TrEMBL record:
Family: Belongs to the ParB family.
Record-annotated ParB-like N-terminal domain positions: 18-108
Protein name: Nucleoid occlusion protein
Sorted UniProt keywords: Cell cycle, Cell division, Cytoplasm, DNA-binding, Septation
Pfam families attached to this UniProt entry: HTH_ParB, ParB_N
Major location category of this protein: cytoplasm
Entry GO terms, CC: chromosome; nucleoid
Molecular function terms, GO-annotated: DNA binding
Organism of provenance: Qingrenia yutianensis
PANTHER family referenced in this protein's UniProt entry, alphabetically: CHROMOSOME-PARTITIONING PROTEIN PARB-RELATED, NUCLEOID OCCLUSION PROTEIN
Protein's GO biological process: chromosome segregation; division septum assembly; positive regulation of sporulation resulting in formation of a cellular spore
Places the protein is found: Cytoplasm, Nucleoid
Length: 276
């Protein structure tokens, strides 16, 4: 590989592919993925053994001549497994915020994260790096409502989340449990779900029955909620239709719907100047 890559001793190595000592690369502290499948690492190592590292790792400069990994954790682990002394990297300028976002995006694109890891990564970027939900949603290419819904999953108690992880329950299971009013009830129901092997539909059904009993068996409340929901959908369709009419008339209007805690947010953008 030496004839293809520059030496890391060169003065200008930024944005160029160079080779660096593998023991000088430290892990990304903002890596959202907590668990790595060893079998997939071994498979990747076998590929690298035969074809080399096709895609260089992304790193940034650290103190004392070291480098901090930005993207390529699996490749780094596979190279370490092969006991490679040097690996190809691209050295880029990047601050803590961007490094954390890139590490998250890489995993999201490869669908490597569990829904709890994704939620924890969002929470970390908001609390530790000062991003708003809107800024974060734009950076990771997700709707703000998606980010908000992921963050809600973190409200579940730690032991309940562990049960969900250990028994590979789905995100919909977790969302259903959030409807229960207290942690004790959530623990009891998740244990019942695991014991009986309930799927999502069955889990949602028993949770609805519990909520029905808690409400005193008053069906009219549920009917009222459905009626209100139906009205909201009518309003939403009215907004969409209005935007559609404007677009058909040559006005480049756009609308965006976000589901926030306690309310729906509709944003309509209409250009100031309209040319026909």
């Amino acid at each position: 590989m030496e004839r293809f890559f520059s030496s890391a001793k060169n003065k200008d190595i930024k944005n160029n592919v160079v080779e660096v000592d593998i023991d000088k690369i430290r892990p990304n502290p903002y890596q959202p993925r907590k668990v790595f499948d060893l079998a997939s690492i071994y498979e990747l190592a076998e590929s690298i053994k035969h074809f080399g590292v096709i895609q260089p790792l992304s790193v940034r400069k650290a103190k004392k001549g070291a480098f901090e990994l930005i993207a390529g954790e699996r490749r780094l682990r596979a190279c370490a497994y092969l006991k490679m002394q040097k690996v190809p990297v691209i050295v880029v300028d990047m601050n803590d915020n961007d490094s954390a976002v890139v590490a998250l995006i890489e995993n999201l694109q490869r669908k490597d994260l569990t829904f709890f890891e994704e939620a924890e990564a969002y929470f970390h970027l908001i609390t530790e790096h000062g991003l708003t939900q809107e800024e974060l949603s734009k950076k990771v290419g997700k709707n703000q409502s998606t980010v908000a819904n992921k963050l809600r999953l973190l409200k579940l108690p730690k032991d309940v989340k562990e049960i969900i992880k250990d028994h590979k329950l789905t995100e919909r299971h977790a969302r259903a449990l959030l409807k229960l009013p207290d942690e004790k009830m959530q623990r009891s129901v998740v244990q019942r779900i695991v014991k009986n092997g309930y799927n999502v539909s069955e889990s949602e059904e028993i949770i609805e029955k519990i909520l029905f009993k808690l409400s005193g068996g008053k069906k009219e409340k549920k009917v009222l909620r459905c009626a209100v929901l139906k009205d909201v959908r009518i309003f939403a369709n009215t907004i969409k239709k209005a935007v559609s009419v404007m677009r058909e008339s040559g006005i480049d209007a756009v609308s965006e719907q976000n589901e926030c805690d306690g309310f729906y947010e509709y944003i309509i953008k209409i250009p100031k100047k309209v040319s026909f």
